[in-house]
Structure formats: structure tokens, C-alpha cells
Amino acid sequence: MEIIFKLLLFDLISCKLFRLNVEKTAKQNVSSNGTVLRREDICKLDSNESQCRKLYSKDNRSTSYGEKKRNVIFVKTFQTHSSSFQNIIFRYTVNHGLNLAMPRNNGGRFFTPEPFRPDMVRPFFNEDQKPNVVASHFVASEELFDYIPDAFTFIILKSLPSLYVSTFDYLKNSTTAFATAKNIDNFYSTPEVFFNPGTPFNVYTRNHMAYNLGFDSNSTDSEYFQKAIERIENRFDVVLISDYFFESLILLQDNLRLTHDEVVTLIKDDTCDETAKISKSITNNIKKWNSFDQQLFNHFNATFWYKLEKIPDLKKRKEILMQRTEALDRY
């Protein structure tokens, strides 16, 4: 049901974008006698190709691009605004007529905490069909990258302590460790007292970004951290940073060659982030307890900005994207 809801959500976003574009263009394109042009005429005059695709069949829509369609692997991390990026990938999948891999268990997750296996994917009606895109919650594995070859691969990370403040708020009643501690100060004062790796959902109470990427989230070995970073660099084309949401959208847009409409999305507010209320000592404890995730963020935050430096007119593009997102949110 979670995936069905999100598919409906991205369709709602597409409808909103279409109506915004039609209304905007209609105001700009009025005939000499004052008659508003028809939708078909507006579409021909407007340079926004995504709007035009909405007026025609799915087949026409999926072939309107000149570039080659790309397979996509998105490892959806937890509490990192990943749902917003997932919706973009869902829209990309539909617009290009690609096949989405969906969980066999009819949920939004591929049997986590087990590592991804191809038999976790719901079979297609046509046995000859192959998946092009996977963008749900799962634990990454070697089999994943063999299952969807030649894919554009990306993930999104988030800074600490913000990640674990929102994680605690979201799972405080669902995770034994958090529920027993009752509040975030108690848990991070003595996390080892409450933590039990064998309890359901407790994988999200320590280094859950590393866990989603297929690594040992209980490791404290700095050498292991470095090897994991090297593997991520080899496996993923782009590592986005949730804290810089619009910059991440632009980086994704450039890599997948998306239109403005395809990259604009509603920003899902995962939880109320009360990071400012966290004391310095608890902040330090959060980073220490989740040292693996902290190392991942530190490294890839630096490489993220290195990639952004190569993008021309970044500031202007960010402003335009923010304006379009605000307009979508108000509509």
C-alpha cells in the first residue's frame, strides 16, 4: 500500500505541475481577439516538454526524449528526505515507460532486514520483462547490482545529529530500545544499555545509513569504515546530501537529464526536527554511537561539494527550483 500511495502522490504532483504550467502559459498566450488559446496550442508554444507529454498517450510520452533511457538503482535510506527523491524516480519510470521493481511482499520494503535478493521482487505479468528501476527500502547487496545492470546508482545521506533526532521521533514507539529509554537524552546517555541488535527495528537505532548500504552497522573499526567508503565510491555514481536538498535535486537532474517538471517535488517533512534542543554532550554521544554513519557523511559531504563546484549557474538554478517548489506547495 505504501508504494501505491506514493505512486498516487507523484501523479498528484504531476497534475499540479501541469495545471500550473497551463494556467501560466494561458495568461501569456492570448490571441489578438482576446480568446485564450486551446491546450493543444499552448503546448506547442510552451517550451516545457513535460507539459506536452501530459497531453498525449503514455507511449508518446515515454519516447519524447532524444536521450537513451537509463536504468536506475536508488538505495532508499531512512529519514533522509528519500521519499521526495523516490517520487521523482517513480515519475521518471512512468514518463520513460520503464519497469519498476516492486516488493513481492506487497509492502514498501524488500523484506528488510534481509539483504536484497532478486526473488524478493514481484514477478511481472510478462515473464520476458526485466526491471529497469528499483527505488524502495531495502538492504543493498552484491546481487542488487547484477540484477539491474548498467544502472545509474545513487543514495542520499543526512548529517548527524539531525538524522538521529528525527529517527528517534519517528520510531520512539516502534523500537524497543527507544521505547524503553522513553526520551532521546536517556537513550544516548547510555545507548549500550538499551540497544539489542536482535530486536526488530533496532537496526535503525545505530548506523542505519551504513546498514541500508549493506554494511555491518555495529562495527567500530575505522579501517572497515574506509573500505566501506571505497566500495560506495565504486558502486554509486552520485551520493546526495539531504541537508542541501535543492543542490541535491540539481545534481540528480543533471545526471539523469531531467526537465524542471520532473525534478520538482513536494518536500516530505519526515518529522519535527528538534536538533537545536539537543545538548552538546548528547550531540557528541549521537555522533560517537553512530560513528560509522558520521564517517560516511563527513566523507561524502566533501565529495558532494566538489561535484557541485562544476555546475554553472548553481545559485540561479537553485533559486528557480525553490520558487517552483514553493508554487507547487501553495497550489
From TrEMBL:
Compartments, as annotated in UniProt:
Golgi apparatus membrane
Q: Enumerate the UniProt keywords alphabetically.
A: Glycoprotein, Golgi apparatus, Membrane, Signal, Signal-anchor, Transferase, Transmembrane, Transmembrane helix
Q: Which GO terms describe its cellular component?
A: Golgi membrane
Where, by residue number, does the polypeptide cross the bilayer?
A: none
Q: Which Pfam families match?
A: Gal-3-0_sulfotr
The cross-references to Gene3D superfamilies, in alphabetical order and at most eight, read: P-loop containing nucleotide triphosphate hydrolases (3.40.50.300)
The UniProt GO MF terms for this protein read: galactosylceramide sulfotransferase activity
List GO BP terms, alphabetically: glycolipid biosynthetic process
**How does the protein's chain sit in the membrane according to the entry?**
Single-pass type II membrane protein
Q: Which domain of life is it from?
A: Eukaryota
Question: Which segments does the entry list as coiled coil?
Answer: none
Q: To which protein family does this belong?
A: Belongs to the galactose-3-O-sulfotransferase family.
Q: Specify the protein name.
A: Uncharacterized protein
Tell me the organism: Oikopleura dioica
**Highest lineage ranks of the organism?**
Eukaryota, Metazoa, Chordata, Tunicata, Appendicularia
